[in-house]
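Encode chain A's predicted structure.
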Amino acid sequence: MMKQAFMYRRRGLLQGSAAVFTAVAVPWAVAADEAPDAMIKRLSDEVLGAVRKDPAVKAGDVRKVVALVDRIILPHLNFRRMTAAAVGPGWRRATPEQQQRLQDEFKQLLVRTYAGALAEVSDQTVVVRPLRMAVDDKDVLVRTEVQGRGDPLQLDYRLEKTPGDGAGWKIYNMNVLGVWLVETYRTQFASEINARGVDGLIAALAARNQANAAGK
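Encoded structure for chain A:
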């Protein structure tokens, strides 16, 4: 049902290298007013640098990848919003317990996809395109291009400005080669919810994650 998840396997790092996953504190302080394009560039360089330094991460070691994702990516991702948008109308019908299960399983699916893609990294670099935004904008699009092997890869990010604790720019969607991540999963998830309900989607995600863990 979720075969398109594997489409992201090859490009998963390129999505995640500036972005995708709620988490622990990062080892450096980040100003709440950091510009969104500067944040994307910093995260991209941080992830690519970590991959190059750690052979286990590059080989797709899931434990190491989870640690990398938790440390670098998750603090800058509105994962609840991503999951809610991917699930669609079914999210509002889900209980708090179901919503948490959906977030947990969706996170695991993306992390596994991300892990498989890390082996594709070699000498890529991320170029951030000039940002068009007003001073008071709360929602922006940051466009980047991943350069290295083969043709450059379009990789864009949607970010929102969040107030209060953890204030700053948070990523809530990504576009790879013209395909938005959340919308891709929403189509797949809607079919499962229509057929088997929210619990059916949770079961399908859990089954996919178990298959990935078993190396299938």
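The chain is about 55% helix and 15% strand.
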